[in-house]
Amino acid sequence: MPRIAGTHVGLDPDGLDVFRPIIFVEIKVGTRSIRVPALVDSGADNTLVPAPFVAPLGVDFHRLPAGHGGSGPGGNLDVRLCQGTMIWEQGKAVLMTQFMVAEPGKGPDTVLLGRADFFKHYVPRFSWHKSPPSFDLDPVPRRR
Amino acid sequence: MAIAKQAAEDALNEIEPNVQEELLRHPGRWVALTRSSVIVVCDSPTEAYDAARRAGIEVPTLYFVPDTRAGYSYF
């Protein structure tokens, strides 16, 4: 897979550029689809979708089946399982057919691609020592 | 070969640099965009989705512009 440029998402409180390893994924729930940025996050156990990202697809967080909960740097948060497809067009891959949704008002500000699902399809290699930063996503070799 | 490789790399850049710079002017807001332009800036993702659909885009691309000035992120 060719190298992917880090996305410049802004300046930090010290005025330095912030780049994130982002790819755009398509999320489909029922007949509706959107494309949204997703952060390749080696620190996330599972892929996590903030509730506002799937609200346009008709997903009401409070109507999803209650889950086991979860925690992040900001403390505990309610996470619930949503049936839907996540596709990475560039990699021509269906990444998952269900994902966890974080409760409104808590959790990250973008989709996180975690180790239990995304990292089983791709091996990331980050080159954040370069300017601008970039990263590679190599497909996991299939066993014969 | 060099041109084909460049084209592949361009395709993966997703958002053109001038659009990335435009996004930085809207921290904390939702944007519907194409690779080369910002369609609308809104306060909610549903509003952005609806605006993109009205513009004829079947699968809207939505982006929440993080407010990186507000502090560091520890996902």
Set down the secondary structure blueprint:
The complex is a heterodimer of chains A (144) and B (75).
Chain A: E1 4-5, E2 7-11, E3 17-20, E4 22-29, E5 32-40, E6 48-50, H1 51-54, E7 70-72, E8 75-77, E9 79-88, E10 93-102, E11 111-113, E12 122-127, E13 134-139
Parallel strand pairs in A: 5-11, 6-10
Antiparallel strand pairs in A: 1-13, 2-3, 4-5, 4-9, 7-8, 9-10, 12-13
Chain B: H1 2-12, H2 17-23, E1 30-33, E2 38-42, H3 45-54, E3 61-64
Antiparallel strand pairs in B: 1-2, 1-3
Low-confidence stretches of chain B: 1-12
Rounded mean pLDDT of chain A is: 89
> Cα distance, first to last residue of chain A?
21 Å
Tell me, rounded to a whole number, the average pLDDT of chain B.
79
Range of strand content of chain A:
over 45%
**Helical coverage of chain B, percent range:** 25-40%
- Count the strands of chain A? 13
**Overall helicity of chain A:** under 10%
Termini separation of chain B: 39 Å
How many strands, which pairing sense, and closed or not: the largest β-sheet of chain A? Answer: 6 strands, mixed
Oligomer: heterodimer
Shape of chain A: globular
Strand order of the largest sheet of chain B: 2-1-3
Rg of chain B, Cα atoms, Å: 15 Å
Number of helices of chain A: 1
Main sheet makeup of chain B: 3 strands, antiparallel
- SSE pattern of chain B, N- to C-terminal: HHEEHE
Q: How many DSSP-defined strands of chain B?
A: 3
Radius of gyration of chain A using CA atoms only: 16 Å
Name the strands of the widest sheet of chain A in spatial order: 6-10-9-4-5-11
Number of helices, counting only DSSP H or I runs of 4 residues or more of chain B:
3
